[in-house]
Amino acid sequence: VQLVESGGGLVQPGGSLRLSCAASGFTFSSYAMSWYRQAPGKEREWVARIPNTGRVTNYADSVKDRFTISRDNAKNTVYLQMNSLNATDTAVYYCSTVIAGRRYWGQGTQVTVSS
Question: How does pLDDT run across 44-71, given as a tens digit for each residue?
Answer without folding.
Answer: 999 999 999 988 999 999 999 999 999 9
